[in-house]
Amino acid sequence: MIVRIAMEGQYRLATDQLTQLYELDGAVMTAAKSGDPEQFEKRFTELLVFVRSGELLGDTHLGSSDAILPPPDVSLAEATREFSAEGLIPS
Fold first, then answer.
1. What is the Cα–Cα distance from 78 to 63, expressed in whole angstroms?
2. Among 14, 34, 47, 87, which has the highest number of CB atoms less than 10 A from its own CB?
3. Which of 91, 51, 54, 56 lies closest to 70 in space, CA to CA?
4. Under a CB-based contact definition with an 8 Å cutoff, are residues 66 and 4 in contact?
């Protein structure tokens, strides 16, 4: 799966990383629904760190992204406008 972090780059995650990716996405959604900005920031940062552990794709990669995450400095209010019912990562 290829995940783009807006304003940053694209990362390729291996199939065996997807379970953890979906778990982290669920934690971000739960934090967002709680309305607690600090909890949201903590969980979103954990998701970003995990995505960055994947293979960084170069600027020459022209393939599409399977998921696009908001930029690292996104606020809770901004992020909730981008959420789907499933979360940030489509299953």
1. 27
2. 47
3. 51
4. no
Integer Cα distance of 51 and 49 in angstroms: 6
Half-sphere exposure of residue 82, counting CA atoms within 13 Å on the CB side? 16
Strand order of the β-sheet with 2-5 is: 55-57, 9-12, 2-5, 67-69
To 10 degrees, what angle do helices 18-34 and 37-52 make? 160
The model's pLDDT over 35-79, given as tens digits with 9 standing for 90+, comes to 999 999 999 999 999 999 999 998 877 788 999 999 999 999 888
Cα 20 → chain centroid: 12
pTM of the model: 0.90
- How many Cβ atoms are within 10 Å of 91's Cβ, its own excluded? 9
Two tokens, residue 87: 């979360």
* Domain ranges (residues) in the chain: 2-82
